[in-house]
Request: fold
Amino acid sequence: MKNQYRQTKTTVSMINYHFVFCPRYRRKIFLIPGVEARFKDLVRDICKQNDIEILAMECHEDHTHLFLNALPQLSIPEIMHLIKGKTSHALRSEFQELSRMPNLWTRSYFVSTAGNVSSETIKWYVDTQKTRY
Reply:
């Protein structure tokens, strides 16, 4: 895992966020064939466009974990707005099962910050989501 300080012209930072969020009504959207793979592709594209590094990403049937490294110019709500907004629009337009939902994601989410010591633990936790149940 890349756990290094990032530099811009005016900042040096290492800001790691662990996000967890779920679809409305905890619907098991990731059991629909193709949704998980498309969601991950969309998140990779969004993160690349906004200079956010994905340290780990995993989906369970009714929620997703993202472990991201962001520059200080992006706030937590901005990151969630980008990811939830763009993935919701794309997934609802591409998958018939999701098109009837007015909103794909809940308004709420969990976020915690991680320093050097706990980053490995969070990465392990996210990477092992599918094998723990």
